[in-house]
Amino acid sequence: MWLKSFLRRVQGLWLSETIHKEISEELQFHIDMRVEENIRRGMTPDEARRDAERRFGNPMQIKEQGYDVRGARWLETIWQDLRYGARMLVKNPGFTLVAVVTLALGIGANTAIFSVINALLVRPLPFAEADRLVMIWETHPDIPRAPVSIPDFQDWRAQAQSFEQMAVHSDRFRNAALTGQGEPAYVQGSFISQNLFVLLGLKPVLGRNFLPEEEQPANNRVVILSQALWQRSFASDPGVVGKSIQLNGGSFTVVGVLGEQYPLEMDVWLPLSHLRAEDFTTRNYHRLSVIGRLKPGVTIEQARREMEAIAARLQQAYPASNKNIGVELLPLRHQLVGALRPVVLLIFAAVALVLLISCANVSNLLMAQASGRQKEMALRAALGAGRGRLVRQLLVESLLLALLGAGSGLALARWTLPLLRAWLSGLAPAKIPGLDSLGIDATTLAFTFGVSVLTGVLFGVAPALQISRIELNQALKEGGKSLTGVRSLNFSRALVVAEVALAVIVLLGAGLVVRSTQRLLRVDPGFPTDHLLSLKINLPATRYPSNERGNEQGDTQINNFYQKLIPRIRALPGVRQAAVIDRLPLAPSGAITPFWAEGQQPDAGKEPVMQTRSVDHRFFELMRIPLRSGRLFSEAEITNNPGHFVVVNETLARRFFPKQEPIGKRIFIRGPQREPIAFPIIGVVADIKDVGLDAPVEPESYFPGVGREATLLVRTAIDPLSLASAVRQSVLNVDPMLPLQQAHSVEETLSASIARRRLTASLLSAFALLALLLATIGIYGVVAYSVRQRTQEIGIRRALGAHASDILKLVIGRGIAPAVLGVVFGLAGALALSRWLTTLTADLLFEVRATDPMTFVAIAVLSLVVALLACYLPARKATKVDPLVALHYE
Amino acid sequence: MTSKQKADLLQGTLDLLILKALSLGPMHGYGVGQRIMQMAEEMLKIEEGSLYPALYRLEEKEWIKSEWGISENNRRARFYKLTPAGRKQLNIEEENWLRFALAMGKVLRTA
């Protein structure tokens, strides 16, 4: 009833048109009826109409009067309600403060997390019509998204009709040396097709894009700089276009400078034709990331079907290379931020629950206030206010509270945004599009407003209905207590059950992630990570060419470099050992190599894969990786042209040579012409966590030799970082022209590799503790209220000889019951949700199942202890009740 | 149209008359007017249009409520109905009015 009239009035605001029409129709009906009646009584139609109009009076004036009442009056009453509500809030500053703070925490957390979702998942990417951009990958049996070979891409581009155009980039120009601009520096470069920036809708801030003729190898010594590099290394020189710069010892002409919108961290772009000639002819080298712009109106599904058909044709035409190669399309946004999605949504779910708990708390506060307002309500009812009017009044107060909460929440959210930005950049090592623009925009404001209105109704409606349900006579007579008090107390207890249950669910979610992180920290990487320093080395190919056989190993400049370097490092005070590996373990080697074991050759394309790394002869000793059988590489095998043999890890030996002696057996990998090359196994070493702490050990082969791209490892006797500059200096003493990155301790690297989990765990824990805090306040509030309500009863019990401990038991017993029920419901709810929770936290959980009993027990105990504490404080106060005072309480 | 003399409507009595008319059952605005006329045996003069602002006011106070329905001659018409609050109000006002009328009568007769 009240809702209808409220809606009608709300409609009035926007639908005044409708109201005018309705009034006109109603008045017309009246006049028509009168005319009919008159005719029935014998008047002529003309007479009848004139009489009807005369009796009716001035229709315009009546319409206006009618509209004033139905259309506009409500505004005035709302204004009255608002003013009255504001007065009530000012009159109860304590209540208002607690309610607003509670709501500000809930709404603020939601606003902050929503602004993240908005920036990452809602707001358009900074590219022209970004919703039509898709990444196109090849799929291999074990690899869901793999780079694409150039001939495949050319076939795709020629055949696909779904795309306006396709462009590519190949980030194979990593760690290029930029020289001639002060200190030598590493730059990250990408080879791109000429149309890439056009397709993305990016325009250079200076100069121009590549020209089609610059795709040709004859004209390809041109480069586009990033704005960041231009500022960093060229002092924002406006005349940089046309100048020549030195990259890896070759000179390139700058043709343009690109702004900051490019989605990957990149310093320079060069034409695609810098890839090797054989990359353009064979389908075995997968080099390209492909991005396409869908034609308007074409869905990604249609494009996927077409691309799958094309891939199928390629499989038929080139079975040797393409036998198992499929195709996968991914919206660009998903490509860029897809990995963050589940984490952000998990956090959003947590803060949504926190907000619900805030609502329950404020609902309870309103309830507690209710008994004090019974008389006021009864009075207003007696003066003629309908129940609808009272409910509306109370709802307006709730909305006012919610909006105050939202205002403070917004301030809170703005304050936490820098923290969230740090969290997000810790989650993903790459550039996150939209992160820079993380802030509170119109969408977020609209969200916050919407949430606060919803919140206001949610926490306001039940108390409003409850309070306004007054037995008028009784309320006036009894001064407003008794019945409603009992009823609202039951309602409050139900709310406590609900909020404890919600808090338990959030706590469990956080608990599982925290426990996973603890487990992860206890994982043994397989080697001591302390006192270990690492420094990346990247020798430019121009000054460190491969030998005449095309090898980086053997009798080369590269080898000489390390021959000179290692003794210098080992001579530094505090250094125990130095060794070289191409890429540090604890992360995928980046070289996933198909292979097969002797006598087990599978069909082409079905080969198992292994990790491969190149190491020198000191590596195993430095890492303290024990030898299980056979032998390790000798110094001569590294420095002279290394032979074709390998050391494998135990996992490989166990899986591919079960119950056999692996030493002397051979494994095969394919060479450049797909010819099998045999590698005899000379040794088996213990497993280490080769691809990451949280991933199972993979089969791995260590090949002898050192190359241009390498990591220098130094085992120290003292704090490894204290040797960082000495080690760098030693490298520069061997080659003063070599650009160097920062040296890191391996423990730093290790901790960065689990940063994603740790950061998420701490954020979730923060929200979980907030949930627990709010639920505790809720319990406390209800128990304290019930003690106030029952002061008289407690006084009587005391007077009749009850001990303080009896009172304590009584109050705590009644207070803890809903909390216990809430814990039970929360645990049951989490169990029911566990499947959903498992998918949501899949990449956050580690060796912990979503139903982990330890976590469940711990959270249950924690919640109950806190609940007990929340009951104990008001219960203790109850024991201090003076029977005499209590009896005179009324 | 009739020989009886008609009295002008006293300020504030129209609401009471409407409530009384609706106490007999739901009716559209025209019908409310007709009922009042019949009950007053055509002794009251009402500007029929003024019924409507009064109806809207009463609805605003939630003493009556309205919805669209079909009239006896099959047209769309807005029907009004007394709410419980309206019935209570009618009782109060009836009593007040009778007491007032009684008092007025006494005063006028003694004068």
* Element string of chain B (H = helix, E = strand): EHEHEHEEH
Q: Fraction of residues of chain A in helices? A: 40-55%
- From the alpha-carbon coordinates, what is the Rg of chain A to the nearest angstrom? 37 Å
Main-sheet strand order of chain B equals 2-5-4
Runs of chain B with pLDDT <50, length 5+?
none
**Which band does the percent of strand residues of chain A land in?**
15-25%
Give average pLDDT of chain A, whole number.
85
- Please state the overall shape of chain A, judged from the principal axes of the Cα atoms: globular
Say how many strands of chain A there are. Answer: 23
Category by helix and strand content of chain A:
alpha+beta
Description:
The complex is a heterodimer of chains A (about 900) and B (about 110). By secondary structure, chain A is of the alpha+beta class. Chain A is about 55% helix and about 15% strand. Chain A is globular. Chain B is α+β, with helices and mostly antiparallel strands. In chain B, the strands form two sheets. Chain B has a three-stranded antiparallel sheet with strand order 2-5-4. Chain B has a two-stranded parallel sheet with strand order 1-3. Chain B has helices at about 15-20, 30-40, 50-60, 85-110; strands spanning about 5-10, 25-30, 45, 65-70, 75-80. The interface between A and B is medium-sized, with 32 and 26 residues.
